[in-house]
Design brief:
With 499 residues, the chain is of the alpha+beta class. The chain has helices at residues 2-21, 45-56, 75-84, 96-102, 112-128, 134-153, 162-178, 187-203, 206-213, 215-218, 224-247, 257-270, 280-311, 313-327, 341-354, 386-390, 433-450, and strands at residues 59-64, 67-72, 91-92, 363-364, 369-371, 374-376, 381-384, 451-453, 496-498. Protoporphyrin IX containing FE (HEM) binds next to α13 and α17. It is found in: Endoplasmic reticulum membrane; Microsome membrane.
């Protein structure tokens, strides 16, 4: 029976594919069932997609297993689709693992009215609780000082910056969401941070990618169970934190996003609104989304920035010279950014080159759309290939190198570049963009005011490898630099030189 079912499936997939192909944007010929999987570099699929775009043009079709995906490539095409056709390309396509788990709640993976309401509410409230404002700046500065103390404790010894960096960045989300930060050695906090981090890694593992494409076949082999276990544990822990907040809730003085949400929920219940989106599932899913989307991204970018400083010491010299000339030893403020054009250019160039979300998150067409002469059916999965924007050869002078001058004019003034789109664009543009930009600026400048970053002993700058680690998720390119030959991961040393 299994063989018969498989045959039916193969035949139907194949005929479905060839029927659809008549209208689809062009693309490489798919194999039945496997689609174009065998042609993709599964570790870094965005690289193969970039190559495909050179052959098939800026709008093309690939089959990830049986799943048809339309890929948008190049600055002009991605911008046009996400901004001019914002509505048509603005739905989110849910991965199977997400469908299993959050049932369309929250803000990252949801659609329709619930998404609209959650996005609006999250944006307004994160703003109210500091995002883009002075209060937020103060929180980041305070957190940065805690982080510096952790770095100093190592007294020049080698250590891995991942955990303290994740804690610092998570604490910013904690302040926004719960209204308070946690100590870095608080086990409740570290387990929340570690589980979130591990789940992002799991979401990107090859077996999970296979599960998303072939859920019926791969549910036994994927590490889905571990993912669910960790996600459930995080959910429980968040619920515990919510109940503590509930006990001391004062509707006239909200401490953070959770308080504001609980007040709205209470209000809806008292008014007898039965179809309100302010229910427990949306609260928990949105909070989990904010941690997942707002921690690894910012922390990873910061670690990229430190790595690039270690690799390019002359650039580090220039940043430190500018910081000391403009600020002396005083604490940096967001408003200093305009007087620090070189530093600002280095941060932008780090984000461009690090390219940490190379395929954005999967979008889906909300209606039939004819785009650049191609017909794309409602409900089609769409990948805006951000790599192709950040490395667009017609937009960047040296797309594959670290070149801060991309963001400087001939007089050394900072220039904005339209093709700088690490946060994507349009309806689904990153909700935390302004918070992330503020964090990157304050953390990076403050760390560089206090420390110098260099390669581990015995490793030259040239040997520092900027190749992103394989096993790259199709969601987030989880950064690690591979150690040079003869050096184990444990020996890699990002030791800050104190002073
Ligand atoms: C979505 C990048 C930090 C919250 C996204 C997307 C990208 C992105 C590329 C997908 C956009 C799309 O689908 O077209 C980044 C980068 C960050 C960062 C590069 C840091 C360097 C943050 C932070 C937060 C956050 C700090 C939390 C406050 C979100 C949310 C979404 C999102 C909630 C989903 C938006 C929606 O679907 O409506 N981000 N992000 N991000 N980001 Fe960020």
């Amino acid at each position: 029976a299994l063989v018969v079912l498989l045959l039916i499936y193969l035949v139907s997939t194949f005929s479905f594919n060839s029927q659809e192909n008549r209208k689809d944007p062009p693309g490489p010929k798919p194999l039945p069932l496997l689609g174009n999987l065998l042609q993709l570099d599964l570790g870094r699929p965005y690289n193969t997609l970039l190559e495909f775009s050179k052959k098939y043009g800026p709008v093309f079709t690939v089959y990830l297993g049986p799943k048809k995906v339309v890929v948008l490539a190049g600055y002009k095409t991605v911008k046009e689709a996400l901004v001019k056709y914002a509505e048509e390309f603005g739905d989110r396509d849910q991965l199977q693992i997400v469908r299993d788990f959050n049932k369309g709640h929250g803000v990252l993976w949801s659609n329709g009215d619930s998404w609209k309401e959650m996005r609006r509410f999250a944006l307004t409230n994160l703003r109210d609780f500091g995002m883009g404002k002075k209060a937020c700046e103060d929180k980041i500065i305070e957190e940065c000082n805690f982080l510096i103390e952790v770095f100093k404790k190592f007294k020049g010894e080698a250590f891995d910056t991942t955990q303290p960096m994740n804690c610092a960045v998570s604490n910013i989300i904690c302040s926004m969401v719960y209204g308070s930060r946690f100590e870095y050695d608080d086990p409740e906090f570290t387990s929340l941070v570690d589980r979130t981090n591990r789940n992002i890694q799991l979401a990107g593992s090859s077996s999970m990618q296979l599960y998303n494409l072939f859920p019926w076949f791969c549910k036994w082999i994927a590490n889905r169970k571990e993912f669910h276990k960790l996600a459930d544990a995080n959910k429980k822990q968040n619920l515990k934190l919510f109940s503590r907040l509930k006990e001391t809730l004062n509707p006239h003085m909200c401490r953070g996003f959770v308080d504001a949400f609980l007040v709205r929920k209470q209000h809806a219940e008292e008014s007898g609104i039965t179809n309100s989106h302010f229910h427990d599932e949306n609260l928990i899913a949105t909070v989990v989304n904010l941690f997942a989307a707002g921690t690894d991204t910012t922390a990873t970018t910061l670690r990229w920035a430190l790595l690039l400083m270690a690799k390019y010491p002359k650039t580090q010299d220039q940043v430190q010279e500018e910081l000391s000339r403009v600020l002396g030893s005083r604490q940096v403020q967001v408003e200093d950014r305009k007087n620090l054009p070189f530093t600002d250019a280095v941060i932008h160039e780090t984000q461009r080159l690090a390219n940490i979300v190379p395929m954005a998150l999967p979008h889906r067409t909300s209606q039939d759309v004819t785009f650049q002469g191609h017909f794309i059916k409602k409900g089609t999965t769409v990948y805006p290939l951000l790599t192709s924007v950040l490395y667009d050869e017609s937009e960047w002078e040296r797309p594959h190198s670290f070149y801060p001058a991309h963001f400087l004019d001939k007089d050394g003034k900072f220039v904005k570049r339209d093709a700088f789109m690490p946060f994507s664009a349009g309806r689904r543009v990153c909700l935390g963009e302004s918070l992330a930009r503020m964090e990157l600026f304050i953390f990076f400048t403050t760390l560089l005011q206090h420390f110098r970053f260099s390669p581990p002993p015995g490793v030259s700058e040239d040997e520092l490898d900027l190749t992103p680690r394989r096993r790259v998720p199709t969601l987030l390119q989880h950064f690690r630099f591979s150690p040079p030959p003869g050096v184990s991961e444990d020996e890699l040393d990002l030791t800050p030189r104190v002073g």
